[in-house]
Amino acid sequence: MGVALVLTACSANIAPGGSSRSRIDVSGSVTAGPTCPVERVGQPCPPAPVHATVVATGAAGEPVAQATTEADGHYAFTVPPGRYTFSVEATGGFLPRCPTKSATVKLGPPEQVDFVCDTGIR
């Protein structure tokens, strides 16, 4: 049920083509840490959600889908089966630095692609 809520809450631009049965749900979260310069006992310093756009790029380098993260850092979109590079375009400048991930999306269960970005705090 949580995935269904995320899927209806996110804004996504999806490339045309293929039927809904030949598309796979991709979702995940974008968080950043560390969020405190020093973590103290009893004062947790959990990763923070990132406001960003997550982009799925196809093998030929063309954007296939994108979604903006919600306030909690979650995003979702659908793509046809294939090999993709997933990237995060943060809206706050050059930090946080988010990794790029590659995955092959196959027919079957939804694909989970989470990002943990570096805030630069040391």
Fold blueprint:
Elements: H1 2-9, E1 11-14, E2 24-33, E3 48-49, E4 52-57, E5 63-68, E6 74-79, E7 82-90, E8 101-105, E9 111-112, E10 115-118
Parallel strand pairs: 2-9, 2-10
Antiparallel strand pairs: 1-5, 2-3, 2-6, 4-5, 4-7, 7-8
Please explain how this structure is put together.
By secondary structure, the chain is mainly beta. It has one domain (2-36, 46-117): Immunoglobulin-like (Sandwich), CATH 2.60.40.10. It has one helix and ten strands. It has one helix spanning 2-9; strands at 11-14, 24-33, 48-49, 52-57, 63-68, 74-79, 82-90, 101-105, 111-112, 115-118. The chain has a five-stranded antiparallel beta sheet, with no helix packed on it. Strands 2, 3, 6, 9 and 10 form a five-stranded mixed beta sheet that branches. The longest helix has 8 residues, at 2-9. 25% of the residues are buried.
